[in-house]
Amino acid sequence: MAAAEGARLHHIARESADVKRLAAFYQEVLGFERIETPKFGEFEVIWLRLPPSFSLHLIEKDPRSKLPEGPSAVADPSALPRGHHISFAVSNYETFVQTLKEKGIKTFEKTQPDGKTKQVFFFDPDGNGLEVGSW
């Protein structure tokens, strides 16, 4: 038996040099809504929610951080490392992909062998990998 009882995913955090730009992307592309965010003093934080309960915490990049900055070293979504992404499901897959293309977002699409499940891979403005599927 696991040590934790009732565990569930609560949120994912992403650092960004421009949290306002990143928040706008997630709101416009995936429909996140901005929620109340506590003040942390010396750095900016924006909390977003994708109803009913998933949260994304965008945190101003620590200038002392050794993490890479800017777009991902992987510029081509078809080369996105399989373990480097957050995945979402949508009910309007085809129109969603069309919207990405209209926004000029570079994408890579594939269909699973079952012929039913479609996936699109792309990056947010900070180079974080994203996948959206038709599950």
Quick rundown:
The protein is α/β, with parallel strands linked by helices and 135 residues long.
CATH fold-level assignment of the largest domain? 2,3-Dihydroxybiphenyl 1,2-Dioxygenase, domain 1
The radius of gyration over CA amounts to 16 Å
**What characteristic shape results from the CA principal axes?**
globular
- Give the distance, in angstroms, between the N- and C-terminal Cα atoms: 30 Å
Query: Strand order, biggest sheet?
Result: 1-4-3-2
Q: How would you sum up the major sheet?
A: 4 strands, mixed
**Helical content band:** 10-25%
Mean pLDDT: 87
Number of domains: 2
Please count the beta strands (DSSP E, at least 2 residues each): 8
| CATH second-level architecture of the largest domain | Roll
Residue runs with pLDDT of under 50 for 5 or more positions: none
